[in-house]
Design brief:
alpha/beta, six-stranded antiparallel sheet, 22 strands
């Protein structure tokens, strides 16, 4: 009896010991599984965060490429490699966290810059319009190359306005000498009502987001804001005077009044918006090749000297082809 009881007790103790060992093993496996899952998830988060960080860097630095080097983030490290053209940009992010590794791969492409519609050499969008035009002002909607020679495309109006009332006002308030120098579609003076429904606030906000150069209000002389081989989107946050030998290519956005003087030349689009007054004073042979847009509640145009506005499909095409947007379209994202 005693031996039988002892055998039973020892047997039960053995079973309980085995059960305890099994429970401990299962608990240990569950802990290991949870830790492993956390490390994998965290490493993936670091890799994806690296992608997001460098997409933002690419928005600000449109020529960024190559290897980033190791970067610390969230207790781990990541490294990013950027390669390929803007139409097929490859961004690879490798991350490491406590011995666990992860790779995320993104294929992206820059979306094109949304160019404003150019329907005249000088387009005015305003509810209130004032004019004080003097000197030898020339507005020409015939196509020009950027060297001043004739371009290959059909003409557009020299001046485009939104309403018949504005068109009549413009015609009645320009001196005959200037009126004869407003050339383009339909003969001289080429002053036409154009059908334009552009939301200029939306357009300017998108262009400002993609700006390569942002400068404050002030006077700038002998500067360069983009070149024919590398045009730029330049944003001026207030009133600006460009004097001397200022040169520029691409898009110039002015949130305020614009004064052009000296021999300044810009090739592309000049967009002046909000309550804007454009004052142009050209002493030499400078001018704007491409298209000029003045959009605001009240627009007052004053001109003296040799102010020149030339429609140029060559300047516009160059800006369209070479300007870079700051926006991306994600084509593929692999993890």
């Amino acid at each position: 009896m005693g031996k039988g009881l002892l055998i039973i007790v020892l047997g039960v103790a053995g079973i309980l010991s085995l059960l305890k060992i099994g429970l401990s093993a299962n608990t240990s496996k569950e802990v290991d599984t949870s830790v492993d899952f956390f490390k994998k998830t965290h490493t993936r988060l670091i890799a994806n965060s690296g992608i997001e960080i460098y997409l933002e860097k690419l928005r600000r630095d449109k020529n960024l490429t190559g290897y980033s080097g190791e970067k610390s983030l969230l207790g781990g490290e990541y490294e990013v490699t950027i390669s390929g053209p803007d139409t097929a940009l490859q961004i690879v992010s490798n991350s490491e966290f406590y011995g666990t590794n992860h790779t995320s791969f993104v294929l992206a492409k820059r979306t094109p810059v949304k160019m404003p519609t150019i329907n005249s050499a000088l387009y005015i969008n305003a509810t209130g319009l004032g004019l004080n035009l003097n000197g030898n002002m020339e507005i020409d909607g015939n196509d020009h190359n950027t060297d001043g020679s004739p371009g290959p495309n059909p003409p557009v109006p020299g001046v485009g306005l939104d309403s018949p009332a504005d068109s009549t006002y413009f015609k009645n308030n320009v001196k005959p000498k200037i009126s004869n120098d407003i050339l383009g579609a339909g003969g001289s003076p080429s002053i036409k009502v154009v059908a334009d429904t552009t939301n200029w606030l939306t357009i300017t906000e998108a262009l400002i987001f993609a700006a390569d150069i942002t400068i404050p209000s002030g006077t700038y002389s002998d500067g360069t804001f983009g070149t024919p081989s590398e045009p730029k989107i330049t944003y001026v946050t207030g009133n600006v005077e460009l004097s001397g030998e200022v040169q520029g290519d691409g898009i110039l956005i002015v949130n305020g009044n614009l004064t052009l003087s000296g021999n300044s030349t810009f090739r592309g689009i000049v967009l002046v918006y909000k309550n804007s007054s454009i004052e142009t004073n050209f002493v030499g042979n400078g001018g704007i090749f491409g298209g000029t847009i003045i959009a605001g509640t009240n627009v007052n145009i004053q001109a003296t000297g040799n102010s020149s506005f030339y429609y140029s499909t060559q300047a516009l095409a160059n800006a369209q082809a070479k300007l870079k947007s700051s926006r991306f379209e994600i084509v593929e994202w692999w993890e």
